[in-house]
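WARN no homologs supplied; continuing
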Amino acid sequence: MMLQKEEEFELCCAERVKALEAREAAMVESQAAVNQHDALEQEVQEQMRVLEERKRMMLQKEEEFELCCAERVKALEAREAAMVESQAAVKQHDALEQEVQEQMRVLEERKRMILQKEEEFELCCAERVKALEAREAAMVESQAAVKQHDALEQEVQEQMRVLEERKRMMLQKEDEFELCCAERVKALEAREAATVESQAAVKQHDALEQEVQEEMRVLEERKRMMLQKEEEFELCCAACVKALEAREAAMVESQAAVKQHDALEQEVQEQMRVLQGRKRMMLQKEEEFELCCAERVRALEAREAAMVESQAAVKQHGALEQEVQEQMRVLEERKRMMLQKEEEFELCCAERVRALEAREAAMVESQAAVKQHDALEQEVQEQMRVLEERKRMMLQKEEEFELCCAERVRALEAREAAAVELERVLQQQQSREELPGKDDAQLQGHLSQQLSNLEGREARLLQKEAELEQRQVESDRLLQSREVAAAEREAQLREIQAEEETRRSQDDTVRRCFHEELEEQKQLLAEREQAALEQEAALERRELALEESQQDSEGPATRNDSEEVKRLHDSLTLATQDLQASQGEADRARAAAQDFAAKAERLALHKRLVLASRLGVNRAVAQS
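OK structure emitted
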C-alpha cells in the first residue's frame, strides 16, 4: 500500500510539474513572439535604409553611365572622322596601286630582255635541290623514328593503366578484408555477451558442483580432441585470445558472485530496515512537497497575471505587425518597381553597349584594314625600289644593246657600201667584158645568205632569252616552295623536340611515383608479415592458458567456445589466403615494375638515337 501511495503521489507531482512547465513554455513563447516582432521592426527599418541607399547608388550610377556614354560617343565620333580620313587614304592608295601595277606591267615587258649569270644560277639551283633532297630523306627517317617512339609510349601507357588497375584491386581487397574482420569482431563481442549472460544464469543453480564435475569429464575428453588439433589452433587470431581472457575474468567474477550469494539474506534484512527509514523520510517529503506546491501555485498566479498583461502587449504588437506588414507590402511594391526600372535601365545600357561594341568592332576592322593597307603600301614601296633598281639595270642593258645594234648597223652599212662599190666595179667590168654576170649573182646570194643567217641568230638569241627567263621564274617558284616546306618541317621538328621533352619529364615523374608506390607496398607487406609472425608467437605462448580456461569453463560455454574457435580458424585461413594472394599480386607488381624499368631504358636509348639522328640532320641542313 505504501508503494501504491508513493506512486500516486509521484504521478500527481509529475502532473503538477508538467502543468507548470507548460505555463512556463507559453510564457517563453510569448516573450519569443515579442522579441521576434522587435526583430522584424528592426529588419524593416534596415531594409528601408538599404532601399534608400540603393536608390541613391542607382541615381549615381545613372549619372556616371550618362557621362561614360557621352565620352564614348565623342570617342566614336573621333573614330568615325579617322575612318573617313582612312577611307580617303585607302582610295589614294588604290590609285597608287593601279599606277604601280601599270609600271609593273611595263617592267615585266622589259624583263624578258634580261640575261644574267645563267650557268651560276643553274649550278646553285642544283646544289639547293640536292640539299633539299637530303633534308627530305632525313625528315622521313625522323618521322619513322617518331612513329616508333609513339608506339613505345602507347605500350608504356597501357602497362601503367594495367598497374593502376591492379593497385585498385589490391586496395579493394584490403578494404573487404578489413570489413570482414570488423564484422567478425562484432559477432565475437555479441557471442561473448551471450556467454557471460548464460554463465551468470548457470551459476545461480543449486546443483553447480555436480554439473561442474560432469563438464570437467567432458572437457577432459574434449581436451584430448583439442590436442589433436594443435596445428589448427596455431592459426587462431588475437581476437580469440582476447575473448578467452575476458571469459576468464567473467568466470572469476562469477565465482566471487557465488561466494557473495550467502550474504544476500543479510543484505535483504538490512534493506528492510532501510525501507522503513525511507517510509518515514517519504512522509516528511510529502509535507515539504505540499508547501512547495503552495508556493508554486502562488508564483503561477503571479505569472498568469503577467501573462494577461503580456497578451495585451501581444495584441498591441499584433496591430503593429499588421501595420508593419502593410508597410512591407508597400516597400515590396516599391522594390518591385525599382527592380523593373533597373531591368529597363540594364536593357537600355545593354543596347547602348552592344551598339558601342558594334562601332568599336567596325573601328577595329577599319584599323586592321588601314594597317593592312599600310603594310601593302610598304610592300609596294619596296617593290617600287626593287623595280626602279631593275629599271635602271634594264636601261643600262638597253643602252648597251643599242650600242651593240648601232655597231652592227654600222658594220652592215659598211658591208652594204662595200657591196654597192663591188656592184659598181662589177658593172664596170661587165661593161668592159662580154662575160655574163655570174659572179655578181653569186655575191648577191652570198650576201643574202649572210643576212638570213644573222636574222636567224637574232631569233634564236631571243628565243633562248625567253626560255631562260621562264626557267628562272620556275626555279624561283620551286625554290620558294621548297624553302617554305623546309621552314615548316623545321618548325615541326622543334615542336616534336618540345613534345619529347615534356613527355620525358612526364615519364620521369610517373616512374618516380611508381617506384615510391612500390616501396610503400613492400613496406606494407613486410609490416603485415611481421604482424602475422607476432600473432603466431602470441598464439603459441597463450595455448596453455587457453586449455586451462576451457577446462574451467562450463558445458554450454565450452560448446560455444569450440564453435567460435572453428569460426575463428576459418576466418584466419581466409585471412592467410588473402595475404598470400596479396603477396602474389605484390610479386606480379614487382615483375611488372622491372619490365616497365627495362622498357623505360629502351625508350630512353631510342630517344637518344632519335635526337642524335636529328642533330645530324640539323647539321647537314646547316651545312647545306
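The mean pLDDT is 69.
OK
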